[in-house]
Amino acid sequence: MLPKTKCNCSNSCTCKDEILKAKKFVKNLKNKNKFSKKQRDTFSVVHFDLRGSTKLMRKDPLVSITNMLLHNKMCRNIVEKNQGTVIKELGDAIIVVFKSTALACECAIKIIRNLKKHGGGIKTKVTIASGTLWTIKTTNEDDVYGIPVNMCTRMSTHAQENCIIFEENAYVSVQNWLLDDKKIKFKKVTRNGKNIRLNDFGPTPMRKIIVS
Questions:
Q1: CA–CA separation, 127 vs 159, rounded Å?
Q2: Residue 42's CB: how many other CB atoms inside 10 A?
Q3: Average model confidence (pLDDT) for the chain?
Q4: Which helix (H) or strand (E) holds 72?
């Protein structure tokens, strides 16, 4: 049986007040019409994930943290030079959005190729999903909410270095353009010949391109 824990607040605990403040904050956003169609648009979400960071963190935390900072900063710099917007950094990963899948894919390929040439061993795994997002400002910066964000993070479990995994709709929108790049190879992402089951999504059609 777990021991009972006491709140770290003073004798008159105010944690309940903080919960109520959060509810009021979200209610105010809704009242100000922040969930309206004006905040909704179609985007492509890209999730860049540093390869090998968890394993390295166990061996050498300082090197691992240095690599995380390098990975995220390198990705951020190239994204911002290629019409993308950084939404957030999550330790060894960075989430960005683009107005089209073509822009997202083109930028991801540039990042993979430039990391291979100039990254000093930094390698990234990439997932791309497209769909409707809501852009809502809850702090000083905008954040995005929607299925493509969740899809990207779920797909990242199956991503590999120097590859991009797409959900099917995102892939279809760029497949003809990708065929012009002779250094790219295509594969379906399956397990035992069947679509892989993603948490919360079930069996999901996914495509992978291998970038050389």
A1: 7
A2: 13
A3: 85
A4: helix 61-81
pLDDT bucket at 90, cuts 50 / 70 / 90: confident
What DSSP character marks residue 2? P
Instruction: Tell me the two tokens of residue 4.
Output: 């009972």
Helix (H, G, I), strand (E, B) or coil at 206: strand
Residue 207 CA to residue 132 CA, distance in Å, equals 20
| Confidence band of 170 (pLDDT split at 50, 70, 90) | confident
pTM, entire model: 0.83
Cα gap 119→113, rounded to integer Å: 9
What domains are defined for the chain?
A: 39-211 (3.30.70.1230)
Report the distance separating Cα 90 and Cα 132, nearest Å: 22
Q: What tokens does 33 get?
A: 């019409």
Cα separations (Å) of 46 from 11, 59, 123, 177? Answer: 46, 29, 15, 18
